[in-house]
UniProtKB/TrEMBL annotation, chain A:
It comes from the Bacteria. GO terms for molecular function: ABC-type phosphonate transporter activity; ATP binding; ATP hydrolysis activity. Keywords: ATP-binding, Cell membrane, Membrane, Nucleotide-binding, Phosphonate transport, Translocase, Transport. The lineage of its organism: Bacteria, Bacillati, Bacillota, Bacilli, Bacillales. One of its GO terms (cellular component) is membrane. Signal peptide: none annotated. This is Phosphonate transport system ATP-binding protein.
Automatic annotation (TrEMBL), chain B:
The chain crosses the membrane at residues 34-54, 95-121, 142-169, 201-222, 229-251, 263-282. Residues 95-279 form the ABC transmembrane type-1 domain. Keywords: Cell membrane, Membrane, Transmembrane, Transmembrane helix, Transport. Belongs to the binding-protein-dependent transport system permease family. GO terms for cellular component: plasma membrane. PANTHER family: ABC TRANSPORT SYSTEM PERMEASE PROTEIN P69, PHOSPHONATES TRANSPORT SYSTEM PERMEASE PROTEIN. SUPFAM superfamilies: MetI-like (SSF161098). One of its GO terms (biological process) is transmembrane transport. It is found in: Cell membrane. It is a multi-pass membrane protein. This is Phosphonate transport system permease protein. The keyword Cell division does not apply.
Length: 262, 290
């Protein structure tokens, strides 16, 4: 399968001496479900944000859909961003608006400035929104205000918003880090479903190794800004975990052992 | 009381064994610089006030007579009000002229302030532009509205035009501060999410920023409207801007009709109460929906 995303020798430096990413190199095929794991501060968020240029990489190349994202002009960047949905740990919804209004925000990038400003959406767009909200189990909540939802529901609205962009890829920055295990499972199941049935490529930052192992086609382990593991979850060994998380990962190693055993 | 606490504080500081745990309650009361400055200022002001009253020259004034005279005036003003130089309907009309002045200046001010407020909000604009606008409006705000009206009167002549421009000017500066602060309160995340989806600045402003700040904006704007009503009354008198304020000026300075002043005062009072009631209702409604 052709690579949808290629990250070639990307480095990112904040200020004088914070090297958040060091020569990061990997590629992702269309439709793949890839998890990025690594300790806090490893550079996972920075990596995702470099891909849609919420942060500008210092050097390297990021090829998405055969275009180098780092070369794009403002206008082209906006167009490419509409093809990349983003899902956040803290959902980042507009609290005072309803579920459907938040979901329809995914359409803004494809609209004329004026129609977007006035919030004018076509019948087709609204029906599409209904279809997606329905698929995410939010059909009964469409007129509820975003701040009245539970965390899990908010995250599903966040996913609906990203899906309404008709994206080719979703970047999910710790989508389940603020959720209880039940809601987290619902979200992960939805993401997996989106990847297998809709063919959308998914790149997800995770803190939970067990979740990453269970859902991913591939795992990329990052430590201190460098890719230290890139491969199938089946081949992830204790040593690899130790490499990713450093020497203080005894508990994690124990967990992984349990999962592989079962 | 306080001196006592200070004493114990001092002794406990010198003898740590007397009080093994530092007492947080006492610590929060300890003297600091701002407290000292504030108390000194208050004390100074009190002394000055007392001194001023004692040192006035009262030779010519008969206190009893003056007090009685004032009371009689107030009694006549408020218990025997009448309208002589214009009719009730005319008075109502004039009240609406004043209201109109307040409304117009608040509307103009609000519209301009939304734009400037967006540019002044640090999360939506560049730091330089934000600082520039904020500095400018705080300067404008520091000068009272009346002065701005008089300044514009130099070019436009005393009258309603100068009043509209001057009052709009000050309303803008007031509302830019209020609006930009409520824009800045919006969490970065929602803006970021829309940026990441390819939305442009105007779309983000109208789809995320303004919906989130709308309740604040409405209550600040209404508050400014109340202020502008009071200013419009004063401008009617001071700048010849017309309306009920001008009638009051005529009644007091030209006809010397104390009863008419009473009547006009009632008009203004009733309107102020109506505005207050309406404002309270509005806030309640916003709270329910907001
Ligand atoms: N805007 C920024 N300015 C300066 N330094 C930053 C900025 N963003 C991130 N960093 C630094 O870059 C490094 C990587 O941060 P990043 O947020 O990507 O880590 P992370 O792997 O996502 O961590 P976490 O799991 O805690 O979210 C950290 O050292 C962080 O301090
Ligand atoms: Mg992160």
């Amino acid at each position: 399968m052709a690579a949808l995303l290629e990250v070639n020798h990307v480095s990112k430096q904040f200020g004088k001496d914070t090297k958040a990413l060091k020569d990061v190199h990997f590629s992702v095929a269309e439709g793949e479900f890839v998890s990025i794991i690594g300790p806090s501060g490893a550079g996972k968020s920075t990596l995702l944000r470099c891909i849609n240029r919420m942060v500008d990489a210092t050097s390297g190349e990021i090829i998405f859909d055969n275009r180098n994202v780092l070369d794009l002009k403002k206008k082209e960047l906006k167009t490419i961003r509409t093809k990349i949905g983003m899902v956040f740990q803290h959902y980042n919804l507009v609290n005072r608006l309803s579920v459907i209004e938040n979901a329809l925000h995914g359409k803004l990038g494809n609209k004329s400035a004026l129609a977007g400003v006035l919030g004018l959406y076509s019948i087709d767009e609204k029906e599409e929104a209904m279809k997606i909200l329905n698929a995410l189990g939010l059909a009964d909540l469409i007129y509820k205000r975003a701040d009245q939802l539970s965390g899990g529901q908010k995250q599903r609205v966040g996913i609906a918003r990203a899906l309404l962009q008709n994206p080719r890829m979703l970047l999910c920055d710790e989508p389940i880090a603020s959720l209880d295990p039940g809601s987290a499972k619902v979200i992960m199941d939805h993401l997996k479903n989106i990847s297998t049935n809709w063919g959308i490529t998914i790149l997800v930052n995770l803190h939970q190794v067990d979740v990453a192992l269970k859902y991913s086609d591939r795992i990329i382990g990052i430590n201190n800004g460098q890719v230290v593991y890139n491969g199938s979850p089946k081949n992830l060994t204790k040593d690899d975990i130790q490499l990713i998380y450093g020497s203080e990962a005894e508990d994690l190693i124990f967990d992984v052992g349990g999962i592989h055993a079962s | 009381m306080e001196a006592n606490e200070q004493m114990t504080n001092v002794s406990s500081a010198t003898d740590p064994f007397l009080k093994p745990y530092p007492d947080k309650r006492l610590k929060s009361r300890a003297w600091n610089k701002s407290l000292v400055v504030m108390r000194t200022t208050l004390l100074l002001l009190t002394v000055l006030t007392v001194y001023a009253f004692v040192s006035f020259d009262y030779k010519e004034v008969d206190f009893k007579e003056a007090a009685l005279g004032t009371l009689t005036n107030i009694k006549v003003m408020f218990l025997e009000p009448h309208l002589k130089h214009f009719t009730f309907l005319q008075a109502v009309h004039q009240v609406f002229v004043t209201l109109g002045l307040a409304f117009l200046t608040t509307l103009f001010g609000g519209l301009i302030a939304v734009l400037l407020g967006l540019l002044a909000a640090e999360n939506l604009s560049s730091r330089r532009v934000s600082l520039l606008i904020k500095g400018l409006v705080s300067f404008i705000r520091a000068v009272p509205t009346v002065l701005w009206v008089l300044i514009f009167a130099v070019a436009a002549g005393l009258g309603s035009v100068a009043a509209v421009i001057g009052m709009t000017f000050h309303s803008v500066s007031y509302l830019v501060k209020a609006y930009s602060e409520s824009f800045e309160e919006l969490d970065r995340g929602a803006i970021e999410a829309l940026q990441a989806s390819g939305a442009n600045w105007w779309q983000i402003v109208f789809q995320a920023v303004i919906p989130s700040s709308l309740t604040y904006m409405i209550s600040w704007t209404f508050l400014r409207f109340e202020i502008n009503f009071a200013v419009a009354v004063a401008m009617g008198a001071a700048a010849g801007a017309g309306g009920i304020g001008f009638d009051m000026f005529m009644a007091s300075n030209f006809y010397l009709d104390i009863r008419e002043i009473g009547a006009i005062t009632y008009f203004i009072l009733i309107l102020a109460i109506l505005l207050e009631v309406f404002g309270a209702g509005l806030k309640k409604k916003l709270k329910v929906n907001g």
